[in-house]
Amino acid sequence: MASSATEEAKPKPRLIVRLGVFLASHHILFSAICCTAGVIALLFLPALAKNTYLSENALIPGSANTLFSTEDVLEANRFAKGIEAATGESRGGTEIPKFIAQQMKNLGAEVYYHEFLPDSKCFHPLKFFTSMTNNMAVKPNGTYTNFGINTIGIIRAPRGDGKEAIVLVTPYNSQRVQPNELLSLSLGFSVFSLLSRVAWLSKDIVWLSADSQFGEYTAVSAWLNQYHNPMFLSHPVTLATKMYGANRIIYKPDGTTEKAELMAFKRAGTVAAALIFKVGETRKYGDRDSVTMYAEASNGQMPNLDLLNVVHYLAVHRQGFRVNIETFSSLLTSSWLKVIAEVFHNIGTVLRKVNPDWKLDVTVPDYVEGTANLASSIYNQALGIPTGSHGAFRDYQVDAVSLEFGPAFHLRNENAKSSFLLRGGRLTEGVVISINNLLEKFHQSFFLYMLTAPSKFISVGVYMIPFALLLAPLPIVAAALAGSSKTKGKLLDECKTKGSADDLQIECGSWKWLKSARVLLVIQFWAVLVSLLPYYISQIPGAMPIQYAVIWAVLSIAILIILYAMFGSPFHAGVEWKLLKATMITTITLGMGLMSIINFATAQLGALILIPMCLFSRPLREQLEMTFLPRTILLVSSILLTLLGFPPVAFLIMNGLSKGSWTVDIVGDFWLWMEFLWEWSSATYLYVFLVHLPCWLLCIHVLLHPCHQPESKMKQE
Amino acid sequence: MAIRHYWSMAAAAVGFRLVLVLFGGDLHLASRPEVSTPLTSIRRLAEGYWLKQASMSPYSGSMYHGSPLLLSVLGPLTNKSLIFVAVDFIAAMLIRATGRKLQIARNRSLKSLDLTEAVSNSVNVSAGDIASLIYLWNPWAIVTCVGSCTSPVENLMVVIIIYGACSRLAPLAAFGYVMATHLSLYPAILIVPIILLLGYGPDTPPTKVFRLKNSNASKTDVSYDEKSSSSRDVRQFSWKPVLHFTLWLLFWSSYVLLLSSIILNKVGGLQEMFKKYFFAEVFDFFRSFFLIVFNMNIIFMVLPLAIRLKHRPCFLAFVYTGIVAMLKSYPSVGDSALYLGLLGLFANELAEMHFTFFLFFGYIGVSLLSPVMHNLWIWRGTGNANFYFATGLAYTCLQTVLVIESSILHLNSLNRGFLYWGLVGPGPSIPLPRYHY
């Protein structure tokens, strides 16, 4: 009686509390609805894409007449012939830089060379977190004969104050110049020569002809690094040997003053934007020349959408190029995607009849193409590895885009080449004019977006919805699990001790999760160790990738066993599985939330695997007590999902799906893939090892949980 | 009930710190804004020390805003943070000793209420051990220690105050108080708990308890009532230690001022210190506004809390440090390390705390979120300052929940104490306040 009286006297809990309790009591239904809605919303994304629009008014692309004319085309041809002659004279990579420098000097530009060494493979998984300033510290000693040499020309703007600059980049391989690289070099030079004559420049122009013998990215990032981090000759010895080696290559013994001038690193102002353009190797058959835009930088960063808008607008509406972005071409022909597209089209038409403002009825080909583009966009962002040398610019907060021209003609066809040069030059000039108009950094338009077509995008507010829907049930489920285990504990308390409160029992009730938190901490510690192991393993010289991978796996398992021996295995710790699952779900929420800020696409893809896996996980022993049908369904789905969640398996399936080939050397491939990720200091590596792997292990623990402790306790009572 | 392996765990914590100090050079913790603020940064101290060595005012160039005493003590040691490991260890030991004192005081007051069976029955984990282990193994304390900023020293001074006051060592308490206020000014509000601690002692059941006890007893046994009221009187506020404290306070503060003036003798004297150190925390044109906004909030809370919690001065000190950590300008994780360490002292009272799961993971989440948001704002440029500010808001919310939860629970446990001591029956004798939101 007394207890009922106190219950009546208790104030009614607030609405939000009652709502929370309601959701927690229906958490299975709620999570099923949310996850399904999340997956459907993800598939719906291509239908929700909007057309791009220019946000920044100062850009006004295409408003000025371009000055690039046939004379500049002739200039380009002359330049190309000059390079051919220069390379014909002698072998080796020094003639082209010399020739380019001479030509630029003739235009009245400031010229210098920049030498760099190829990057050595480094293990620095946390580098993306700190600044990019410290990465030049490691330079090997000694003289290296194998240098890359960038040639840089700077035009000082007649109307500028030298505080801002636009960078144009044309990569080429100085060891062996291909005809397509020759074309892009001559395009770059003709634009540069035009810009050296115009009167309207208010930002300096820097033309970087990047030596891509070690890869485009290396050349550009080395130059940017030195551009932004002035070297105060703190390592005079290394510098001297480097310079000496380089000088010997480029120069004859005479002309020391000129040499010093050409070696001195010169700068223009802050880089406002950068444009990387090159001509593709293969001829693309089609009615028009095409331009492919590459924009993904490291860790899913994108340049400001306005830059892409300007390029797209000028290329399509002024110069008549066909603009592409990267796509998964295998998806374009897949039949199941067409079925989904039909379904969405029908739903869209119905919705349109309900409200004519909802324009969701995309046509089937549009949907399929959008999905293929979006998948490629998400994949490239999730990988966290830049798709070209524009990624190096993004590390310094500079917006940059790579344009790869795909000529629809044969490169020997002089007429078509001239027309291509004319339009390509006009496009580049137009972009430069627009950026030149800018008064501030790009800031008006989106930084967080995904492209479904060159002129269609999904902004952060839309693409967050599926992820948020997938993530929404997690706190509810965690609360429900923790709450249910707590009430159980309280019941135990009440039946044991009446009246006088016992501290120990209460402590068990309120702080019971500490045990599972301890399990979690041990597993996280293990994950940190596993993620750091490759640093030491990769020091072992001359082993096959598969050997590295096996060493890695064996060491990881050994460390796990040692840790369990030290801190006690979770199977013997007597942790309730519900609390363990609640802890796991909380860590997933935290990890996913953080990862979605660092690299959204990774979090999105990870959530698709991880969240169903952890929601389905229940101890197998408990599942055996159910009736047949739900038991089989639960058993099969949880085992399948857990198998899928193991990173190498997930990698194998992804690899198989994308390439269509199911290789046997999965272990070695996994090692190579991980090596690729940490060399580029991608945050995806950290995600895989600090979020995904520990959660997978916790899932295994939940599945294999003996789950008889509570019962035995009950019996004791 | 002492904790097993206490010393090995403490030694492991110290060893861990040493390893990080000696080999963790690549962590660059000193440049994290969460760890070292403009007021506590050791880099700025190095700058001030260099200026002082060049016989310039350490405050010229407005890099350094710390105490001149720190310049002399820490200045020569700026590149070795081993001293901070020692400081942290001393602080942890003092917290442990404080916990012991509190335990003894509690048992004594229980005994004075004739509740010896309660003393033996209550399952008390040694709160001091827990508190010192929390302080030693708190990742934030470790980060503050390794990231070499001056907040471990400030924390040590606050711990010295509390220890000195709990063990009624007026000179020590006065020394800690003078140094702590000299180093960061905010611990000034701790004067209230110090006086209460010195006056009443660490644990005094409210006088109401004694009166209730007496009246309860009078119902049953009159002779017992007379005996008890004559032998065990309600403890009065004793002014002697407070006066003692005041005298020492004057002595230490004049000593500190003298030292500072000697240090700054060549470069403008004390005037320089007051102008550049105490009042140089904010921009000129907003100075008065900020001084009011930042600091009035803290001052508003002092009096009501003091009235409500005057029977538990140590807990009052914890609440004050929590509020200061929440509302001070230039907060850092070092402040949180201090109050989380003190929280451990009340482990027995707070065993029933709500939202512990949420708070634990919330603290983890916020401490991971902060570098990510900072990265987004500073290095990537896709976020702005508001992203980082939002993290700060979430952090403050968590702290608020923690302080409010622990206060409610503490007050409720006081009330439960009445019930526990058998003073209030389950019947409707006295309506006890139960604290809800």
TrEMBL record, chain A:
Superkingdom per UniProt: Eukaryota
Keywords, alphabetical: Membrane, Transmembrane, Transmembrane helix
Example of a GO biological process term: attachment of GPI anchor to protein
Pfam families in alphabetical order: Gaa1
GO cellular component: GPI-anchor transamidase complex
Residues that span the membrane, as ranges: 21-45, 460-482, 519-537, 549-567, 632-654, 684-704
Protein name: Glycosylphosphatidylinositol anchor attachment 1 protein
Species in which this protein is naturally found: Leersia perrieri
TrEMBL record, chain B:
Location within or outside the cell: Endoplasmic reticulum membrane
The keyword Transmembrane is assigned to this record: yes
Gene Ontology cellular-component terms listed: GPI-anchor transamidase complex
Pathway: Glycolipid biosynthesis; glycosylphosphatidylinositol-anchor biosynthesis
Pfam families per record: PIG-U
Keyword hit for Endoplasmic reticulum: yes
Residues annotated as transmembrane: 81-99, 156-178, 184-201, 242-265, 285-307, 314-333, 353-373, 385-404
InterPro entries, alphabetized: PIG-U (IPR009600)
Subcellular location, principal: endoplasmic reticulum
Alphabetical keyword list: Endoplasmic reticulum, GPI-anchor biosynthesis, Membrane, Transmembrane, Transmembrane helix
Gene Ontology biological process: attachment of GPI anchor to protein; GPI anchor biosynthetic process
Membrane-topology descriptor: Multi-pass membrane protein
Cited PANTHER family: GPI TRANSAMIDASE COMPONENT PIG-U, PHOSPHATIDYLINOSITOL GLYCAN ANCHOR BIOSYNTHESIS CLASS U PROTEIN
Entry's family note: Belongs to the PIGU family.
Name of the protein in question: GPI transamidase subunit PIG-U
Species whose genome carries this gene: Leersia perrieri
